[in-house]
Records
---
Amino acid sequence: MVNRCAKIPEADILNIKAPTDHNKISPIGPTNITKPAYTDCKLRIYKLHMTGELQPLPGGAETALHVCFDRAIRMIRQKVKIMANLSEIREQSAKAAEAVCEAAHLRKGDLFVVGCSTSEVVGGQIGTNSSLEAAEAVFEGIHGVLHKRGIFLAAQCCEHLNRALIVEREACEKFDLEEVNVIPQPKAGGSFGTTAYRRFADPVAVESLRQKASAGMDVGCTLIGMHIKPVVVPLRIPVRRIGEAVLVCARRRPKFVGGERAVYNEELM
């Protein structure tokens, strides 16, 4: 039975894509599923989601429709789970950003890099199940903290865009970054990069940060260390996960120079 604690709008269910390759989803081989038949199937799914009452599926291509039905039910269950956890994901993201800012002694004008796999946040495997809803919750939590402190956020895109990053144009100009021409999409750049591009005041895609970030958060093992100034030091903070994703944080430490007689500033260590 579908969890009915959180309701999904009917339009969201009706927008579930009909399968395009029936050989891959139908145990009976190629099957022609007409658009009206698939729409009818989704309407029955919606009634199940809202009331718990399942109507019999129509005849004709019934086996294939059952496969479509099972796929859609799994998608609904996952979306209900995501919607129920959004406030917690937002809160975890904000707490983690606050902790990193404090531990890294960040100042106004610093650059903060975030890599985020929303697939991992919602309990999937990186690169398999991108979620705009989860991306928005993570973005809102982190960006809200950084914006108040005057710290720039750099959102790393996925490897399909060679881990290009989305920053505000002001940050691009301040740190002398090289702009590239791309608009991230959930399946080509990732949901987090896409959300940053949509939510920034004047977004710019850049090829790299040239190791100019002062700290960062890696949500779901996306790898961000190459963007942070040497020497990169891992941070242990109270928040260990965001959603289901493992959280790894880091900051930069100025290099030590001198020898055994040198005296060092402990606040920078």
---
Amino acid sequence: MSQEEGQLTKEEYDRAIAGINKVADNVSKMEWNYERLKSKREKLLLEIVVSYWKSIALKDDFLYPIRLTFSTYEYDCGMLNENLTKELLSLDSVISNGNDDIRMKRKEQVKRILDLQDKITQMHKDAVALSMFYRSCLKQGRYQALLQPEAPTIETPAAISWNPLLLRCQRRNRRSRLWRMCLLRSSRHCIERSPFIQSLFYLLRSSRLAAAR
């Protein structure tokens, strides 16, 4: 030990080194998590594309069930960055009292954490962009058309729906029937009210009966 190292007791020195080594182990685990999440992003991007076109081809929803995967991925990237910040605070609590060995090891871990934080910050931005791409696929018109229930179709005869000549003839026949009914009702009304017309009809009927005999 040097003279500066003598300013710390052996117990304090061992405690400081143990604290730095613990942070180094935690950072190693986070580096492994970083590599795992980084490789997972490409798989998730491929999963979005495959699920979207699979939904379009098979007329079924394969995109919405995987929605939690992307929110979880974005959350994991953000938490990894926060955990690195906690490790920086842990290094700040390590007391060196001017000890060069402790200061050098602590500086190495601080640089290691800051470099990893830069990478994780970029990865978190990519995770946010991936979530936005997933939501944009959900808003596509071709995908939204799959979620809309099909309206019941009412079959109508083609002749009635699309033949204007037939429609015109039907209206004309309807008007002629109404006109004949009006004439019949008016004639009956005249016969019932006029005694002359009643007697005339009686004479015609009697003459027909006589001719038949």
---
Amino acid sequence: MINKNPFLIFGIFCIIALVLPNVSAIGITPPKYEINFEPRLEKSFTFGILYTPGKTVEVSVGEEYRDEYKKADLSSYVRFDKTEVLIGSDGMGHVTVTLNFPEKINPPGRQRSLITATEPKPEGGGIGGIAAINGVIYINVPYPGKYLETELSSENIEINQPAELIIKMTSRGKEMIKKVSTIIEIYDANGNLVDTLIPKSLTSIVTNDKRELKTTWDTTGVGEGVYTWKAKINYDGNIIEKERSFKIGSLSIRILNFTKQFSQGRISVFDLEIQSIWNAVIKDVYAYINILKGTKTITTIKTPNYDISGWQVKNITAYLDAANLEIGSYPVEIVLHYENKTTTETGIIEVLEGVELEKPSPAAKTPVEKIIIAVMVGLLIVIIIVYLLKRK
């Protein structure tokens, strides 16, 4: 007979509700628009709503949930051509949102209006939340006087490659900025001043105008490492100071650390922590690890092949069988192979008497791995539930 224990059935129902994903997902496209404020301007925007064909989705002005945007209430300036969107056979419906600006909006700055699409309530009720998604319309309201927004941009480079340093600027004030001058100082990882650059000045930047100030730093003869450039930006007597770091690298991989203690008579993990000093992916990286007794190699182990991304720190793993190793210390030679090059590191490992060694921390799971694990656990739970219900 099927077990009709109400507590068991309720528990099963809760597990299924928690584990099984939503069959329908609601979406909105494009996710955002951006507009510069103009007094009395009327502007329309079209959003596409993605959902199950034949269903109706509600749209409304969304509620703010981030403190930095709790500035201006724009809801009274928003109008919809419809508040219920019927989803077509292609899985999409459309809504037009119109903004009618007043003479002025306070306070100034980057304001926004959230446009929320909410899925319909489940037919027949049921347990579970109702999904909703927001589109955003950003409104740039100018500041009184002169106001300059700045952003620094630079990329990691190869050794002896020129470094392009970019300052992106946008005038967000009501008054024109007559002149922008800049001094750039470049520092090494120890805080030592390496170079000073003075780019050309920019002039006549009007409201909402976007400019880029580009300069190039010649890195010939500069060593690899992390460098910081600090920009002191002067616009009509107003000072902005910003900084950003970038890396100069070469096609090489460093060995940062490795496992140094092993338990006698056991197969143990031999971890190598390595770091790429290159901007691109290096493929098929592997290591030979030689365990020595004096100058003679007594055992050699190898890691699998790995790919390592630009500047990535990564653990690669081999396995050491310490069954035939006596208790004591052993010299170790690690030879890392990649792109017809090698990096060698030497050191000492210890084989200890049958002790429980601390296990290395597992590598963090990627989002995809987490999803796969969740799905597998969910399927296992469903299989167990079906088996229990069918058991007589």
---
Amino acid sequence: MSAEKTFLYSNVGATLLGNALARAAGIDSWEAFARQRLFEPAGVTGVTFAHTLSGIPAEAPSGGWTNGRRVMPFSGEDQAPTGSATYITPDAMAHYVQAILDDTVPGGATAQEPRWEVAESSWIGYHWRVQDRNGHRMINHSGGTSTASTQLIVDKEAGKAVMVCSNTGFTGPSIPELAEHLLYGSDKHTPYAAMATMMGAIQVAITAACVLFLVFAAVRGDGPASRLAAGIRSVEALSCLVLAWTFDPWGMVPGWLFGIPLTLGGYAIARTMVRWRDLPSLPGKHLWYFYARIAVALAVVAVSGWLVWPKY
């Protein structure tokens, strides 16, 4: 909450709070604090804090982006209190949620009490969101990384809860609304779409740069005056198409828009092929410039290959 009482969730704030609680309790780490003060008293086992990639449970499902690309999952201690590198089995999660329903979770209902109003019929407790909607009081929290999305809704008055987990990252409002539908039969539905995040902005920026180059390549289809120049242009166009597809902003914008860079790149390459026989192998002048362009094109291919190659 800011001075103007505007709510803005922050992973940095959650990390600071978790580590501050551990230090105030005289416990060395957030992991030890969570186990001693939360999971062990509640009888919850099956929780793993992955400090490294090798620490991720073998049975944990792999996740990825909306185009199905698998990406490296989260691990490490730097943001452990946010839960981004915490893995819990379904049975353990069900046990924990039952403890919330029964008020046997350590601290009882204290953390779930509405404390600060952030919108009409919506409050924040201690990291729990409390909402009154359609005659129901929902206690909920969501989570999202580049490889997973989750939503937990607890209705203590009705004595029921639902947990939705997806192995696709940043799915926006679709997962919370699916959870609400499963719990109450809500008809509200948002089409599956990625939410706007910093990673999303990077994806859009890279794709936009690729599209701009493809526009240039299509407009200047008759520009290359030699086979060397045409080959360089074609390689760069193909690299841009691969990057545009791999960095997948198509969860945030309609997927059919990928047809735009595909058409531009296809036209630029096709135009080059049509003119290929009529072009000299090497340019008549400034040959050094084209050798430099070869180096740049190879660097583009190398960087594109490194970015595209699966890391996990």
